[in-house]
Amino acid sequence: MHTLLILLLSAFSSLIVGFIWYNPKVFGNIWMRESGVSAEKIKAGNMALTILVSFLYAFFISFIFQYLVIHQTGALGMIGGNELKALPSYANFMRDYGNAFRTFKHGALHGFFTGLFFCLPIIGVGALHERRSWKYTLIAGGYWIVTGMIMGGIICQWM
Predict the structure, then answer these.
(1) Total-model pTM
(2) I want to staple 104 with a disulfide (CB 3.0 to 4.6 A). Which of 48, 59, 138, 153 is the partner?
(3) Residue 24: partners with Cβ closer than 8 Å, 6 or more residues away
(4) Which residues contact 32 (CB under 8 A, 6 or more apart)?
């Protein structure tokens, strides 16, 4: 239950960042211009469905982030994921290193690198093929860099 709540909080943080990031007073107007979307088109859409599906996708991202930002999941993977079948050396390792690098700051660092070296290139390749501008790429990619930092920090600190 604890893990699920942390993943839900992490996913929810992406909506908060999005509400700020894509606000017309921040990057919203530039993003609309560069993506070819008007305020009228956004208002005409089903906002509840957009937010719900965005939250679901963010939950998927949160789920995989736990493996990217928490080093100890690698040790768990090495034993096949079942702590009850692990050799005593696993318990000794976790006793010695189970809380190593489990801070918001460390999770944010991994979130930054994931956003910069994974999300931004994916958005950038899509933007190149869609003939979108570098401004669009930086705004959309920047959102995922900041969001990744917050999501990664939440997961690494509290999970």
Answers:
(1) 0.92
(2) 153
(3) 32, 39
(4) 24, 38, 39, 42
Tokens at 126, concatenated: 């899509």
- 136: tokens are 């669009």
Report whether 150 contacts 65 (CB < 8 A): no
Taking each helix axis as running N to C, give the angle between helix 134-158 and helix 2-21, from 0 to 180 degrees, rounded to the nearest 10. 150
By CB neighbour count within 10 A (0-12 exposed, 13-18 middle, 19+ buried), where does 60 fall? exposed
- N- to C-terminal Cα distance for the chain? 11
| C-alpha closest to that of 148 among 37, 45, 14, 2 | 14
Hey, what are 72's tokens? 């100890």
Q: Which among 109, 99, 134 is positioned nearest to 120, based on CA atoms?
A: 134
What is the per-residue pLDDT across 54-95, written as a single tens digit (0 to 9) for each? 999 999 999 999 999 999 998 888 999 898 899 999 999 999
Is 62:11 a contact under the CB 8 Å cutoff? Answer: yes
pLDDT per residue as tens digits for the range 2-23: 999 999 999 999 999 999 999 9
